[in-house]
Design brief:
The structure is a single chain. The protein has 358 residues and is mainly α. The chain has one domain. 48% of the residues are buried.
Length: 358
Amino acid sequence: MLYHFLYPLAADIRLFNVFKYLTFRSIYAMITALAVAFFIGPWMIRKLEGLQARQVIRTDGPESHLKKQGTPTMGGVLIIASILIPTLLWSDLTNKYVWLALFIIVGYGIIGFVDDYKKVVEKNPKGLTPRQKMFWQVLMAAAVATFLYIIPEFSEELFFPFFKKLHPDLGLLYIPFVTLVIVGASNAVNLTDGLDGLAIGPVSINAATYMIFAYIAGNFKLATYLQIPYVAGTGELAILCAAMVGAGLGFLWYNSYPAEVFMGDVGSLSLGGGLGTLAVLTKQEILLVIVGGIFVVEALSVIFQVGSYKYRGKRIFRMAPIHHHFELKGVAEPKIIVRFWIISIILALIAISTLKLR
């Protein structure tokens, strides 16, 4: 909204010309997201405590987690608010890609909110059934995929890092592919959210990485020079990415070990879905496997654990997702968290290096 109100004044007051620049608006979107998180964070935590929205800890998990019993959850509401407000303030609201990303972030947040509310407030341990959650996730992701398939300016080609000439056209198969990316990313982040700050750290790093790719993908000269797909209008997504980084850091202020609040499904589903959508809109879907490698490994550890136990009667890990495996091996929770952050930074650097390695 600030962009639409203040940038037109640049014709008379040159100072407002800064609103033309994505870099300026991205920086202040990040600062605004941090400010929102810091300002409403304590109030939000008190409200969650008043609702009795407290985390229920599984008794079959690591014993060290039992002390987390009663910690407020559903803090993802704070994250979504911290993303939504600065994005609406600093973005060009005529940009369809911004609205597509917000649709998934808010829509998946609502799914997670309903599930969390049923579990922790209404004390219904089942919450939404896995089938119900998957239905709504697939429906929303498929709606975005179908929209992208219909609009003529968006390509159904798939681009691979390190290979500048490898970009097959998926045609109609692009719809299920996009759906899989968004739903898969959402649930992978959800599985990673098991330790204090474990998920929000890599999410912020991923968002910062896609901020760079969004800026370049929306700039014809840079995209052409670096030989990545140019998608007109995706530059505005850099502002949303910056807001995600700011919101993530703001939430980490309260979620770092020992956590004052957990994000719950309302946070993890929305953030994962948002990252998947950003990967799709910037035409860097395959890159998400690299930059989001932590989430991929966490999801695969669950898949392999379940498959191995079902077909072999044996477990591969002491407990899945894999961060619990390391806990049961005696590695301290803060050490696991920081090491996963370090790995996420390394993977982000590798992802950024693909801009020149083509």
